[in-house]
Amino acid sequence: MTLPGEQHLQKIQFYATTAYACGYLKDQPAQSLIATPHHLIDAHAYSGLIKLGFRRSGKFAYRPHCETCHACIPVRLPVSQFKAKRSQRRAWKQHQNLSASLMELTFSEEHFALYSAYQITRHEGGLGDPETAEQYRNFLVQSNVESLMVEFRENGILKMVSVVDIVRDGVSAVYTFYDASDLHASYGTYNVMWLLEWCKTLNLPYLYLGYWIKESRKMAYKKNFLPQEGLVDGIWQPIHLDLDATSK
């Protein structure tokens, strides 16, 4: 299977996975479209794929390909148009004592411990066997594209790690994990705000936030960042708070 698009994507092939349990909608089957071979999915190719709604997990580039469900909507923030809400400005001010460091993708026991604690705290009661270090490596430490880790510390103590990809027209937030035991912190909001500011310094117009699913509580935070665009009917266009496409 091939997809229309830029010339450098024409050598890439795509195949649909078999159905599996959706990780976001209960009792809903899901399928993905996978881009292969992996060694061709470099930074240049991925910059084209992300504009077609693909995301990256480890060395895999994929997008939802469900027969009966179209709930996943790729979303991105136009950096120059972003307007912070009062709560977001408060989160930005609250965490100004965090120091940020850019680093190459690398396995760290300290990172893995924070990731494991985050998974337990955020998914209590709904998580199966804890992820192994090897699963963590495959998910967040392997990449064929231009990827970095952003490490956030407070007084030398690790508080948050954000894995990002740099593409031709923006930054893609792959995954972020943080100290979820601090109930008064707003690390997730601060991370998006920090990435928006970083995009400005890189002179990149978009921050890609992945998929939005209206019925998924895990993704509720994304609708708080406005204005935003969604890939609807194959076209990136402004979307409203309820994430219905605007009229053209």
What are the salient characteristics of this protein?
248 residues; 2 domains; 4-stranded antiparallel β-sheet; 5 helices; globular
Structural summary, described in words:
The protein is of the alpha+beta class. It has 2 domains: 67 residues, no CATH class; 166 residues, 3-Layer(aba) Sandwich (Aminopeptidase). It is 23% helix and 31% strand. The protein is built from 5 helices and 14 strands. The strands form 3 sheets. Strands 8-9-10-11-12-7-13-14 form an 8-stranded mixed β-sheet. It has a 4-stranded antiparallel β-sheet with strand order 1-4-6-5. It has a two-stranded antiparallel ribbon with strand order 2-3. Strand 11, helix 5 and strand 12 form a beta-alpha-beta unit. The longest helix is centred in the last third of the chain and has 16 residues. The radius of gyration is 18 Å and the shape is globular. The two termini are 30 Å apart. The C terminus is likely disordered.
Tell me what portion of residues adopts beta-strand conformation.
Answer: 25-35%
Put simply, the count of helices is 5
The side-by-side strand order for the widest beta sheet comes to: 8-9-10-11-12-7-13-14
CATH C-level name of the largest domain: Alpha Beta
* SS elements, strand count: 14
- CATH homologous superfamily designation of the largest domain: Gcn5-related N-acetyltransferase (GNAT)
The mean pLDDT is 91
Taking pLDDT < 50 over at least 5 consecutive residues as the criterion, the unreliable ranges are 243-248
Structural class: alpha+beta
Give the CA-based shape. Answer: globular
Summarize the helix and strand pattern as letters: EEEEHEEEHEHHEEEHEEE
Domain module tally: 2
